[in-house]
Write the structure tokens for this entry.
Amino acid sequence: MMLQLEFIRRRRVPWLGLFCMSCALAWGAVLVAESLALHEVAMQDAQRAVQLEQTLKELRLAALKLQAKSDPETLRRQKEQEKIIAALRYPWTRVLSTIEQADSNEVAVLSLSHEQAGGQTQIALEALDSQALVHFVNALNEESSTNFPGEEVDGQAQWYITNYQSQRQDGAQTVKGTILNK
């Protein structure tokens, strides 16, 4: 009997499969690295875009301010706005409270004109007689001296009659006058 040995063929190493798998892994690693790099570049671009937007806003504001300074129409509008704001902030209660407290049934206020810059007030009145007009002016002077004692000028009255005229309307005589304050 003769012994025969049969050898089983050894399995070959699948080089082709290993090569394909290593290529796929390398390609995946490259893709992951590129994805991370692109994500970082995108973040940097977003930050740069925000910085550029802020710079653009600042430049636009600076250009608008420069244009506003050089444009006479804009300067005029800005001055008008400042005048309106000053008029709104003016202490009107101080001006009107004196007139309101001196109110009389014998005198009617026709118009009120107040110059804010000089603080001068002009009131057009209508009264039944000249004595009512004088009493109203005296009441104004009393109210202004009690409410604002520092405003009396050298002991003189603050309110005074500038002119008046007597008129006949519907059979009744009325006196129209204008008073000013100093």
The chain is about 55% helix and 20% strand. The mean pLDDT is 85.
